Amino acid sequence: MARTTTGRRRDQVHHQPDIARAAHLIADPSRARMLKALSDGRALAAGVLAAEAGVSAATASAHLGKLVEARLVDMESVGRCRYYRLANPDVSLALEALAVIAPPLPVTSLRESSTAGALRRSRTCYDHLAGQLGVTLLESLLTGGLLAGHDGTHHPGRSVRDGASGYGHDVDYRLTDTGRETLARFGLDLDGLPARRPLIRYCVDWSEQRHHLAGAVGAALTARLFALGWLRYGSSPRVVHVTEDGADGLAGTFGLRLAD
């Protein structure tokens, strides 16, 4: 088994990535809508993805089969139902990066216009918060002294390694002692977070062109906000709404005040 794993790693090192194949899979509008629906890290049923893409169950099954074969998506059977989720966070990051250079879709209905606005206000970027809510949360953590290292801004002309979206590398954010104490009181077990994952990371938010919090802390904080009922998902995948209790709690705990 060890030889097989080593051989696979060598293949990955010495073979060029098949960008064209990945681009071809994402390029289909129905598959692109399915992948976007899965970009918050949740597992969704095939029927939900078919409805999101606006295709029949049979057509959705064919599309999902191609995505599973290409290892962009994983499938799990639960009874008679099949559930799908992104194979790893890199798929979501690739979609976020493409959103920077992609032309806008034509808005043909009030629902599409409302969804686009909602995604910009508050959405998930795999397992952490993005959009205006995500960048405002990071700003509040910095203002409150929970994080240090930068001011949350993105400077395209001065960035060395940061692109217009995706994980950033130019800045080293860090938790302060105040941050550790505050997050512990808030219910985060910082010592129990996955050791394999960086504690603090950030993404350049494609819609806001500022930083939002990622990494193990970003994921744990987002999960805690949902567990408290301060956040809930909207009718469209990835869209997040702040509840009335959430607005009060975010203001009282982190000094985050939402724009009217």
Automatic annotation (TrEMBL):
Coiled coil, from the record: none
SUPFAM superfamilies, alphabetized: Winged helix' DNA-binding domain (SSF46785)
Pfam families: HTH_20 (PF12840)
CDD domains: HTH_ARSR (cd00090)
Sequence ranges assigned to domain HTH arsR-type in this UniProt record: 11-106
PROSITE patterns linked: HTH_ARSR_2
Xref: PANTHER family: TRANSCRIPTIONAL REGULATOR-RELATED, TRANSCRIPTIONAL REGULATORY PROTEIN
NCBIfam families: HTH_metalloreg
Protein name: Metalloregulator ArsR/SmtB family transcription factor
Organism listed in the record: Streptomyces tanashiensis
